[in-house]
């Protein structure tokens, strides 16, 4: 029986399965569809990094200020992006010394659930952003605020006001936090530093942070309790402990020789610098006052940067760190709201009718696609499945750049080779300079990358406000040979083989091959290429397991600092084993220099040090590359390659043309 | 009874297989350079320490292994490291139906085309149909699916503009990937059907059927076909496995958010938990398919004894 009908049965099962597969929901195309490149890591502003995340978060959330095209076009006809009070704040003032910013939040600012957006929302979101347990990668962006770094890095000293989070947190989730008690730190008992620890500021800080996390420190805190009219002082010793056990501090208790009784130590979640002491103050529901350490010229840029966008406290506390970003839970305040998210497929955004400027937002729906393959993405663009392609393949640029719908302009990004300055012969500065001079960058740009990029002779890309930068020279084979001879390797004799590391991609290989040839022919150096897939490549960079490595860097904001602070001694992104005291000093001083001209001068000097030491070999400056359908308006090439979605308009042929990007101020 | 014992035995072996796969991949994943916290921007010391604590990456390896194993036994694969808004279970729950739908369409296409071609070839043996179908079948088997996909895109997307280039969400978008996925299997099935059909057609009872005056159509469809597709049925098991693994590449080319995309990305991004989840799902799936094949053998051929 079974045997007789089994073919029939299988056909039936197949038929049923097809019916099931067909019945799965279909989703028609949105008004505006674009490829965002990679799948975003998260929608939580505090956890996000990278431009794909930025595009989505800027559409869903809105900070105090909004970067929009504003002001006069530059020499290339580009309207610069400026952070202006077209976000949650409708006006802001800066004190005369540039250290106090007062933001006024517009009265009609609303969350998608109808709640008003208030100054408290910002204070709470920024507290969460700075909280060490949030582990926000971008948290240093708020370190310009007074006390913020102290709060984040747990840099505590005796006498500081502190907040203790008691170990009564109900869930494992980061937020909501447990009960907070505020007091004064009376004694801080730290484990003795290991003998080989170098005595620099940075490492001390890190040691304190790690100690606080792993529960190896004891904090004695004094509280003032108001019972009736007489203040009662209560002193409690705490040790930070993730799970309530205090095993980590036994040894410390033994070695303690002070006067405080350590018999009753209580576990707690955190002892942090009192957030009320941080320069973020709520003056009224509408008024937020931010006090900085020093005048910081680009602070408005940071305020408009997506990691600083606010999140809804009730939503985060109710659903917890991971679940609050689900479409059915998330509460946002931006021009769009989240409708649906299909992992590694699309994010469907709908216009947010609650948005203060909803009348000016034209797109009703947006599909944010995450298409990994650049070729697939281009195919979809060419067949009108996409309105905007952010990732045209490099191999096609020389054809695409002749098209009218290819929107491209220099932007804030450098393609360069890192040099591991601890690997001989690359520890010799003359060798590094010779290698740099022997590369024909013009030829790489014209014959290999072919997308309109410009050859780079300095690290910081041009276009930074008021920054002239280091003027490097082009390739000079004669000088290169001479320098190599001076370094003791005439005609490359005796020079060990040099290895170029790059992450597996045709575009990187092509460039590496040209450089291999340049070095071989011009200097007589034997060069081998080594490619690694992305994860292994990052690991090789971080562990210093390379000689010369292909690298790239995209600036976060139009200021030289975003490039230059990378190469301070021991900086996590330095990765070259290079350090220079004067360089570090300049970068540090520039953070607090109020005079813009003097500040830029500090950066120029720093870049000169970096380039003359030839820690990196710049290859070219990127251009942004976007394919945008002709019926899309409100899309403008700019230095940061930021394109606010709420300004995009669709004007198909025949309908009225309106290319105005200036918004009237409500 | 025999069937129950067989299934229980298989279940036992499956658990052991899953455990071995889990253990091997757990340690292999951590042996390769790089980790989930490595990114283009290097994390500061304190952020890294916090994240390691959040994901229990700071525990000794064997503690991590034990925790992860226990959670896996409870069907909890943990949070995805690189899709922070989701747990691995949620990612798999979204990805699996997509791959399944693609696979089902590919399989249906392969069966319909393969069997039709096989029957026609057998009936019109050595005709131009036979020759061209078998040539196509050979090509279908020989050409790798990504080459086929490129050719299909040039032809049906750009030249004839019949189908969308990629994406997932409409029925039209399933056609091309399903065809490319099913093509090699259609080729195999066509050859299996043809061989089976030829064998059956030479039997006496077919001659009898003709002699009774039945039309060719009735003879083929009612009498010959049933016997000739038995080899095809037994081929479905390995074909399912092939379709599963074959979709890894096609999902990338056609931007389909299925298991394959998640699996490849997880491996490249060192998303240990998601990689493990996808791997174990594949393991279980293949094991179940193989068991079904063995079962179907015994149904098709009573001489086969389950053990």
Distinct helical segment count of chain A: 18
Overall average residue pLDDT of chain A? 87
Largest interface: A-B, 72 and 71 residues
Number of strands of chain B: 0
Fraction of residues in H or I helices of chain A: 25-40%
Biggest sheet layout of chain A? 11 strands, mixed
* Unreliable spans of chain A: 196-203, 656-666
* Counted beta strands of chain A: 24
**How widely separated are the two ends of chain A?**
78 Å
Secondary structure tally, helices of chain B: 12
Describe the protein.
The complex is a heterodimer of chains A (666) and B (307). Helix content of chain A is 28%, strand content 23%. With 666 residues, chain A is of the alpha+beta class. Chain B is mostly helical and 307 residues long. In chain B, α5 packs across α7 (172-201). The relative contact order of chain B is 0.14. The mean pLDDT of chain B is 88. Chains A and B meet through α1, α5, α9 and α15 of A and α2, α4, α6, α10 and α11 of B.
Quick summary:
The complex is a heterodimer of chains A (666) and B (307). Chain A has 666 residues and is of the alpha+beta class. At the A-B interface, helix 1, helix 5, helix 9 and helix 15 of A face helix 2, helix 4, helix 6, helix 10 and helix 11 of B.
List the helices and strands and how they pair.
The complex is a heterodimer of chains A (666) and B (307).
Chain A (H helix, E strand, L loop, with lengths): L1 H22 L8 E4 L15 H10 L5 E4 L11 E4 L4 E6 L5 E6 L13 H12 L17 H5 L8 E6 L13 E10 L11 H13 L4 E10 L2 E11 L9 H6 L9 E9 L6 E5 L2 E5 L7 H5 L9 H11 L12 E7 L3 E6 L13 E5 L4 H9 L5 E2 L7 H4 L5 E14 L9 H9 L3 H9 L4 E2 L21 H10 L11 E6 L2 H18 L3 E6 L1 H9 L5 E7 L6 H4 L16 H12 L3 H18 L2 E13 L3 E2 L15 E2 L16
Parallel strand pairs in A: 1-15, 1-16, 9-10, 19-20, 19-21
Antiparallel strand pairs in A: 2-3, 4-5, 5-12, 6-7, 6-10, 7-8, 8-9, 11-12, 13-14, 14-15, 16-22, 17-21, 17-22, 18-22, 23-24
Chain B lengths: L1 H30 L13 H10 L6 H13 L14 H36 L4 H15 L2 H15 L12 H30 L2 H8 L4 H13 L1 H24 L5 H11 L2 H29 L7
Helix pairs in contact in B: 1-12, 4-5, 4-7, 4-10, 4-11, 4-12, 5-7, 6-7, 6-10, 7-9, 7-10, 10-11, 10-12, 11-12
């Amino acid at each position: 029986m079974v045997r007789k009908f089994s073919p029939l049965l299988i056909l039936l099962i197949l038929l049923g399965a097809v019916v099931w597969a067909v019945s799965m929901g279909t989703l028609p195309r949105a008004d505006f569809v674009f490829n965002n490149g990679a799948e975003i890591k998260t929608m939580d502003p505090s956890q996000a990094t990278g431009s794909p995340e930025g595009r989505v978060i800027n559409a869903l959330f809105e900070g105090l200020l909004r970067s929009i095209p504003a002001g006069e076009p530059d020499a290339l006809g580009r309207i610069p992006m400026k952070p202006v009070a077209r976000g949650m704040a409708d006006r802001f003032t800066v004190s005369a010394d540039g250290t106090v910013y007062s933001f006024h939040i517009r009265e009609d600012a609303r969350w998608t659930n109808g709640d008003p957006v208030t100054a408290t929302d910002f204070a709470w979101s920024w507290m969460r952003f700075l909280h060490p347990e949030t582990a926000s990668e971008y948290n240093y962006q708020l370190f310009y605020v007074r006390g913020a770094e102290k709060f984040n890095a747990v840099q505590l000293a005796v006498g500081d006001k502190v907040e203790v989070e008691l170990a009564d947190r109900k869930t494992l989730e980061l937020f909501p936090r447990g009960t907070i008690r505020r007091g004064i730190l009376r004694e801080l008992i730290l484990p003795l530093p290991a003998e080989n620890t170098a005595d620099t500021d940075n490492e001390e800080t890190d040691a304190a942070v790690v100690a606080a996390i792993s529960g190896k420190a004891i904090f004695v805190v004094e509280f003032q309790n108001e019972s009736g009219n007489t203040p009662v002082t209560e002193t409690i010793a705490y040790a930070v402990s993730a799970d309530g056990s205090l095993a980590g501090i036994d040894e410390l208790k033994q070695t303690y020789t002070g006067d405080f009784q350590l018999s009753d130590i209580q576990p707690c979640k955190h002892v942090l610098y009192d957030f009320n002491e941080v320069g973020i103050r709520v003056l009224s529901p509408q008024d937020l006052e931010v006090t900085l350490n020093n005048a910081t010229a680009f602070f408005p840029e940071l305020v408009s940067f997506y990691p600083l966008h606010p999140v809804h406290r009730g939503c985060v506390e109710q659903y917890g760190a991971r679940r609050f970003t689900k479409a059915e839970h998330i509460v946002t305040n931006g021009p769009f709201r989240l409708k649906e998210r299909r992992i590694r497929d699309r994010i469907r955004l709908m216009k947010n009718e609650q948005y203060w400027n909803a009348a000016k937002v034209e797109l009703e729906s947006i599909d944010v696609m995450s298409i990994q393959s650049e070729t697939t993405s281009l195919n979809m663009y060419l067949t009108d499945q996409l309105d905007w392609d952010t990732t045209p393949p490099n191999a096609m640029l020389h054809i695409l750049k002749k098209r009218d719908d290819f929107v491209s302009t220099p932007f804030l990004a450098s393609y360069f080779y890192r040099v591991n300055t601890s690997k001989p012969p690359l520890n010799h500065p003359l060798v590094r300079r010779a290698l740099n001079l022997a590369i024909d960058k013009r030829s790489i740009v014209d014959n290999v990358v072919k997308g309109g990029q410009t050859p780079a002779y300095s690290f910081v890309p041009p276009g930074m406000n008021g920054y002239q930068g280091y003027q490097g020279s082009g390739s000079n084979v004669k000088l290169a040979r001479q320098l190599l001879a001076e370094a003791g390797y005439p005609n490359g004799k005796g020079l060990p083989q040099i290895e170029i590391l790059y992450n597996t991609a045709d575009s990187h290989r092509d460039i590496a091959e040209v450089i291999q040839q340049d070095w071989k022919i011009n200097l007589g150096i034997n060069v081998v290429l080594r490619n690694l897939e992305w994860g292994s490549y990052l690991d090789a960079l971080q562990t210093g397991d390379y000689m010369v490595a292909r690298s790239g860097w995209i600036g976060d904001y139009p200021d030289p600092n975003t490039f230059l602070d990378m190469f301070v001694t021991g900086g996590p992104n330095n990765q070259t084993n290079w350090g220079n005291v004067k360089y570090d000093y300049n970068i540090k001083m520039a953070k607090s220099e109020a005079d813009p001209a003097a500040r830029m001068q500090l950066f120029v000097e720093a870049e000169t040090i970096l380039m003359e030491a030839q820690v990196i070999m710049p290859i070219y400056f990127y251009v942004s590359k976007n394919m945008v359908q002709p019926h899309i308006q409100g899309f403008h090439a700019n230095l940061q390659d930021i394109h606010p979605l709420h300004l995009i308009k669709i004007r198909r042929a025949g309908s009225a043309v309106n290319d105005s990007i200036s918004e009237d101020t409500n | 009874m025999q069937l129950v014992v067989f299934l229980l035995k298989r279940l036992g072996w499956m658990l052991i297989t899953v455990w071995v796969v889990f253990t091997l991949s757990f340690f292999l994943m951590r042996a390769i350079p790089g980790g989930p916290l490595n990114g283009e921007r290097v994390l500061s010391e304190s952020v890294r320490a916090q994240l390691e604590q959040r994901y229990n990456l700071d525990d000794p390896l064997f503690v991590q292994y034990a925790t992860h194993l226990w959670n896996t036994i409870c069907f909890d694969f943990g949070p995805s490291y690189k899709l922070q808004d989701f747990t691995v279970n949620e990612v798999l729950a979204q990805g699996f139906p997509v791959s399944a739908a693609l696979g089902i369409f590919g399989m249906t296409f392969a069966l319909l085309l393969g069997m039709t071609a096989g029957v026609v070839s057998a009936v019109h043996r050595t005709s131009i149909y036979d020759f061209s179908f078998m040539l196509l079948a050979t090509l279908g088997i020989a050409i790798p699916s990504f080459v086929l996909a490129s050719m299909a895109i040039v032809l049906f997307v750009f030249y004839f503009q019949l189908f969308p280039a990629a994406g997932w969400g409409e029925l039209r978008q399933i056609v091309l990937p399903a065809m490319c996925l099913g093509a090699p299997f259609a080729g195999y099935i066509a050859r299996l059907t043809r061989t089976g059909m030829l064998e059956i057609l030479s039997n006496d009872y077919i001659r009898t059927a003709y002699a009774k005056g039945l039309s060719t159509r009735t003879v083929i469809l009612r009498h010959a076909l049933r016997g000739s597709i038995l080899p095809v049925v037994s081929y479905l098991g390995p074909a399912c496995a092939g379709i599963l693994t074959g979709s890894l590449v096609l999902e990338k080319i056609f931007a389909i958010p299925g298991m394959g995309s998640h699996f490849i990305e997880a491996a490249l991004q060192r998303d240990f938990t998601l990689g493990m989840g996808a791997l174990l799902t594949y393991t279980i799936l293949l094991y179940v398919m193989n068991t079904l094949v063995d079962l179907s053998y015994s149904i098709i051929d009573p001489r086969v004894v389950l053990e």
